[in-house]
Amino acid sequence: MKARQRRYFLKDKETKALLTKASEKFKISLGQIFKEKTGFEVVEADFGDILLVNGKPLMFKIGEEIFPTLVFEEFLAMAPKIIVDMGAVPYVCKGANIMAPGIRRYEGDFEEGDIVLVLDEKHGKAIAVGQSLLSSENAKNAKQGSTVKNIHFVSDNIWNFIKQFTH
Fold first, then answer.
1. What is the DSSP string of the chain?
2. Considering the chain, what is the average pLDDT of its residues?
């Protein structure tokens, strides 16, 4: 899978707007994570735009929506987490939403629509970034149905692009 050849730096004004939007969506201050002089590049791919921060693929855009990648370590450390049993892992890594019966526990609080991280129970590895369909309070009481919409997961186009890009 080849990305289109378009790759360009964002202007300071565009970078500032992107950081503001992403900070609000991720509920963390990206301005504190990325110090003053940060180079933001966009790599256009068939499935969306990969956003490079100082050369690292930390975020991506699909349409106007912006999300963190599974290699954005600073976000991963702070994000609310949903730990799933090992039986759920193959499904999550094929793009399935996260279902209530496969969830073992929650770490951190979140609201409906928040970005959450999905980890496997055995290794504690990040396997997906999702958007919560319920608040943490409601998710803890859910016995069935989807609790998280799977946005980005190990083995998807973004993951494969990042692996190809970083090697």
1. -PPPS-EEEPPHHHHHHHHHHHHHHHTS-HHHHS-SS--EEEEEETTEEEEEETTEEEEEEETTEEEE-TT-HHHHHHS-EEEE-TTTHHHHTTTPPEEGGGEEEEES---TT-EEEEEETTT--EEEEEEESS-HHHHHH--SSEEEEEEEETTSHHHHHHHHHH-
2. 93
Put simply, whether the predicted model's pTM sits higher than 0.85 gets the answer: yes
Residue with tokens 């693929």: 57
Say what the pLDDT of residue 3 is: 43
* pLDDT tens digits, 61-104: 998 999 999 999 999 999 999 999 999 999 999 999 999 999 99
| Distance of alpha carbon 156 from alpha carbon 45, whole angstroms | 13
Radius of gyration of the chain (CA): 16
| Domains of the chain, first to last | 7-71 (3.10.450.120), 75-157 (2.30.130.10)
**CA 62 – CA 47 distance, rounded (Å):** 7
